[in-house]
Amino acid sequence: MATLASLTDWMRTNIAQQDAQIFQDLTECVAHPSVFLEDSESCLKSAEWVQEAFRAVGVDNIEIREAADGSYPLFGYVEPAAGKPTVLLYCHHDVQPADDQPGWETDPWVVTEKNNRWYGRGTADDKGNLVALLAALRALREWAPQSDHPDHPFGGVGIRMVVEGSEEAGGEGLDDWLQKHPEWFAADAILIADTGNVAVGKPTINISLRGVAMLTVKLRTLRSPVHSGQYGGPAPDALMGLISMLASLRGADGGLTIDDLPADQEWDGVQYSPEEFASDAGVLPGVELCSAGTPSEMAWARPTVTITGLDATPVKKAINAVPAEAAAVINLRVPPTMDPREAQEKLIAHLQKRVPWNAQVEFEDGGVGSPYMADTSGTAHQGMVEALAAAYGQTPEDVLMSGDGGSIPLCGALKAAHPDTQLVLFGVEEPLCGIHGPNESVDPTEVSAIATAVALFLASFEG
Question: Are 441 and 200 in contact (CB under 8 A)?
């Protein structure tokens, strides 16, 4: 049986020798603008690249499927040796848009090295994690001949690959495959490579994810815009009405104020200091954080609302007219203790009570994603703690347990379909990556360290 002590130096050396290959993999992967719903051809080419890349490292049986939502997930499988466990490796190859996002200093589809980081859309979320998995499997395959199962491509451990194609849009396509073919997701442990560390060099396992409920609200008050001088005052201003409704969702301290929705949860894990949070979030000098709770509580443990889109007259096209209609997209994040569908219903009820002037209002359901809370008592969790500690040259006590304010809808669905399977969330992302924003980047040392940790886990996990 392989042990971490005997494996660590070997895996570290092997993956260090892959530096050029890792950079090439990431460059080729990022070159595909795989923005789901924007460029189907690029998404398919991205999936084809992923397929060939994993076949090249030993996952021969990996296939592209077209999902119900039109995305292109991939599923692969390598059987385990007798008596050995199977581990599912998850990542996604779709990315957020970049072409219309101002602020990019480099071409988002060309990996650019500067300031000891690699810049480009998806370098962290989630193609950086994808290439880390490739590097881990490449190392594991080269180590296999000296394992207890030298004839097995990965030293005995079975591998399932699930590479999602629409995670950034809610992952409905993968949910459909999970309902139809739960056996494609069956494993003794599932490694979700789509989160990351609290800081560079600080190995972290994410034990909590908030769920999400999306809602679009549209308010109408007039047949069409009317002259603000002639009618302004008595005429109901749709934009002002919508603003008043949205303003009722949060208090002056930033705390959520949705009727009957608790927002006082606490967080007992690693704390996110106000100074670190402000720096990581890019809060402008002199601007204060919301004070309803600590950053850890408000970002990881409590429900929060963000207005992610607004339909109104653009400033450059402003005219002296009373707006006839306005709309907003509301992003409601909910903690693991809360059902996202029930929270969405309470959000709607709250807004309905505050519609001014008996205006016409419409609500459009944008979908929900389940929150997730990890079981940290299993062998997979402990195995990854030890693997991360070894990969980073630290002790298991140094591995942090963190929350994440984002959501990975698949986690809740996987736990429902396979309740006895252990899930572990980790990855190459850390605050400096700036995922979803302009100038997304990744620290190359994080890619290598995570690849090493995954290789160590797969070589030593016994189920």
Answer: no
